[in-house]
């Protein structure tokens, strides 16, 4: 009984530690708040982001160059081989779908949703999403929730990789298990982040007009930047009022 209790207690403890490490791993993978990380880690993240930006710009310039060349060729009636253009675009997306703002691909994949909605519709995803979530159909919310949970599970594998690693000092196969879990976590996190971001963007593009209609902003014709700007303004909270001159400051 004592042995069984010890095993169960150890398993429970490992599960709790894995959840805690998984939360930390998710923060590292998504890097939404990397500007607030401790100085040493923040400096590494800043250098990684700068490196990714430099290489992304090179890849994006190549893609745009091939696009322009293809457009000129089509204007002359010439045949265009899309292989080079597609390869250049794939090289760009391997770095980031948009200009990198974070040190990780998964973080930039989700950030790309906000960038595109801002560029295309002048929408603020952070302000839009809580309101949009409340009116989404149940099937859409179910799909998005499942995608978000898959992302959490993928990053939790990183935690298990870290937990197995110390065991390698006594049992060498633990090192191989740790490496396999780490690689699997990296691949699954990228895939899950891509799916989750795709669903976020699709939901916003498909249902932003519905939200505008519910708020009495029913846009005539296609949903445009002007429509998005009106919705954004409507969802933005008003600023706090100007305090009176005789307002006392607590602590003075």
List the helices and strands and how they pair.
Layout: H1 2-30, H2 39-75, H3 83-95, H4 105-121, H5 125-135, H6 138-164, H7 173-214, H8 225-235
List keywords for this structure.
252 residues; mainly alpha
Q: Into which percentage range does the β-strand content fall?
A: under 5%
Tell me, briefly, the overall form.
Answer: globular
Query: Share of helix among residues?
Result: over 70%
Question: What count of helical segments does DSSP give?
Answer: 8
User: C-alpha Rg, in Å?
Assistant: 24 Å
Q: Uncertain segments of ≥5 residues (pLDDT<50)?
A: 2-12
Question: Largest sheet, if any?
Answer: none
Average pLDDT across residues?
85
Order of helices and strands: HHHHHHHH
Q: End-to-end distance, in Å?
A: 62 Å
Task: Find the structural class using helix and strand composition.
Answer: mainly alpha
Word description of this protein:
The structure is a single chain. With about 250 residues, the chain is mainly α. It has one domain. Helices cover about 75% and strands about 0% of the residues. The chain contains 8 helices and no strands. The protein has helices at about 1-30, 40-75, 85-95, 105-120, 125-135, 140-165, 175-215, 225-235. Helix 2 (about 40-75) runs antiparallel to helix 3. The termini are far apart.
Structure, briefly:
The chain is mostly helical and 252 residues long. It contains eight helices and no strands.
């Amino acid at each position: 009984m004592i042995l069984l209790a010890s095993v169960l207690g150890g398993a429970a403890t490992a599960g709790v530690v894995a959840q805690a490490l998984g939360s930390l791993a998710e923060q590292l993978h998504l890097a939404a708040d990397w500007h607030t990380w401790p100085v040493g880690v923040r400096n590494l993240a800043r250098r990684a982001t700068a490196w990714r930006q430099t290489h992304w710009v090179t890849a994006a310039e190549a893609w745009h160059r091939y696009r322009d060349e293809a457009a000129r060729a089509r204007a002359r009636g010439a045949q265009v081989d899309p292989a080079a253009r597609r390869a250049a675009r794939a090289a760009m997306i391997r770095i980031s779908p948009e200009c990198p703002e974070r040190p990780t691909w998964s973080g930039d994949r989700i950030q790309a949703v906000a960038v595109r909605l801002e560029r295309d519709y002048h929408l603020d995803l952070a302000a839009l999403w809580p309101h949009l979530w409340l009116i989404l159909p149940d099937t859409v919310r179910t799909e998005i929730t499942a995608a978000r949970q898959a992302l959490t599970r993928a990053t939790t594998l990183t935690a298990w990789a870290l937990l197995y690693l110390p065991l390698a000092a006594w049992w060498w196969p633990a090192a191989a298990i740790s490496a396999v879990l780490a690689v699997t976590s990296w691949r699954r996190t990228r895939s899950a982040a891509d799916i989750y971001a795709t669903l976020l963007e699709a939901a916003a593009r498909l249902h932003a007009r519905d939200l505008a209609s519910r708020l009495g902003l029913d846009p005539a014709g296609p949903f445009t930047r002007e429509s998005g700007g009106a919705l954004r303004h409507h969802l933005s909270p008003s600023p706090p009022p100007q305090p009176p001159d005789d307002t006392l400051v607590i602590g003075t």
